[in-house]
Amino acid sequence: MIHSFSASYAGHIVDDHLGLQGMPANDRNYSNEKLAQAFDWALDFAQHLDGFGYDELWMAEHHFQPEGYECIPNLLMMGLYLSTQTKRLKYGCGFNITPMWHPLRLAEDFAMADILSGGRVIFGVGRGYHSREVETFGSPMLDADANRELFEEQVDVLLKAFNQESFSHQGKHFHIPPPVAYRGYTLEKISLVPRPTHGPVEIWQPLVSGNPRGIDFMAKKGIRALLATTPEPLLGQRLTLYRDACAAHGRELALGEDTALGYRMFIADTQKKAIDLARPYYEEAMKFAAPLGLLPLKPEQIAAVADPAKRRGVQLPTLEDAVKGGSWLCGPAEMIVEHLKSVEEKYPGVERVNVAAVMGMPRQVFKDQLTKFAEEVMPAFAK
Questions:
Q1: pLDDT computed for residue 382 by the predictor
Q2: Which of 58, 153, 171, 377 has the highest Cβ tally under 10 A?
């Protein structure tokens, strides 16, 4: 049953000239002072959530975005800092883009954050989706097979580093440790110093495409799944695939167990009012995501999203479509409660729900929505 609520903030500072009639995504270019405000926004949201009974704040690691959409390059530093400014809130890494890291450096940095925060940083891994950042760091993104191969080996190294007092690894990309002389002996094993002290380390990964190989890898390694803005019937299909994959590796789960469901939401007196108020944020998110291949759109639709001159006669997805599919929750609080209660019935293993700040949603608007959700939705679910 649902009992844990969290929020997501990807690090945007965009909050004007929104929607399909607003500024094109590629025309946005903010000053360094403005971009750095993402850290202040994150602090503001964290303290707000901490006071309203939320359990976690999830943030995203991204790089090189003068457009102002995702401006937090290091989640472990951010989470550790925020843990010093709040009392109980945990901070989810959603997600450390693993191909841009050396896995031992990522393991070390998480171990420090785990110890210094008192276990309030939650580890997460992802393969990435921005060619500009992953390829710039010298790792494959355009070659999806190479990206997955590298990622899977990195996860193997991370798990050894977290769980074994000393270890070795011989793979295609990493040879750990190198067979070098050290103080009179040849290295054969190495130890992460220190290892995380709050364990076993809980690892999360986004479940995006429903690729059976990827889901099987998650199940095999005991990685938990976040399914964000996934409409029905895809949501049910992917939860079933995950459950069945875990069973194949000896872990019997209820449908939805070891997963979190992510939604975008807007609460207002009526569903029509909520949709009308949220529409600019829905459209801004589409402007950001469509050219990156994150939405199931045709080439002419992607071109129309990016360029108003190409929009004539092209039918684009609407917020009404997203609400109907259940990936956006718009309406009075009682309507959102009703939807989440139906989720509990369909997927009895689900315990965690995440509500996200949408690209372009102003700081105060998101805080107001978080307040309404905490006061009018969360009390309907057992803590």
A1: 78
A2: 58
**Rounded CA gap, 250 and 248, in Å?**
6
C-alpha span between 45 and 51 (Å, rounded): 10
Token representation of residue 305: 């999203």
Tokens representing 170?
């011989």
CA atoms within 13 A on the CB side of 70: 22
Residue 262's beta-bridge partner residues? Answer: 228, 354
- Whole-angstrom distance, CA of residue 14 vs CA of residue 307: 19
Contacts of 143 (CB under 8 A, 6+ apart): none
Reading phi first (left if > 0) and then psi (alpha if -120 to 50, else beta), residue 298 is in beta
Task: Give ∠ CA 286-292-294 in degrees, rounded to 5.
Answer: 65
| Domain assignments of the chain as residue spans, ordered by start | 4-164+194-283+327-380
CATH, domain 4-164+194-283+327-380, list 3.30.450.40, 1.10.10.10, 3.20.20.30, 3.20.20.70: 3.20.20.30
> What pLDDT, on the 0 to 100 scale, is given for residue 296?
87
Sign of CA dihedral 366, 30, 295, 210: negative
Six token digits for residue 77 = 């530093």
Digit-coded pLDDT (tens) for 331-383? 999 999 999 999 999 999 999 999 998 999 999 999 999 999 999 999 999 77
User: Which phi and psi angles does 145 have, rounded to 5°?
Assistant: -65, -40
What three-state secondary structure class fits 118? Answer: coil
Phi, psi of 12 (to 5 degrees): -80, 150
What's the burial of 54, exposed, middle or buried (CB within 10 Å: 0-12/13-18/19+)?
buried
Q: Output the CA–CA distances (angstroms, integers) from residue 211 to 214, 241, 289, in the order listed.
A: 5, 9, 20
Looking at residue 182, its amino acid is Y
User: Contact, 358 vs 281, CB < 8 A?
Assistant: yes
Report how far residue 225's alpha carbon sits from residue 218's, in angstroms, rounded to the nearest whole number. 8
pLDDT in tens, 67-81: 999 999 999 999 999
Question: Burial of 153 by CB count in 10 Å (0-12 exposed, 13-18 middle, 19+ buried)?
Answer: middle
Asked if 306 and 291 touch (Cβ cutoff 8 Å), the reply is yes
Beta bridge partners of 175: 170
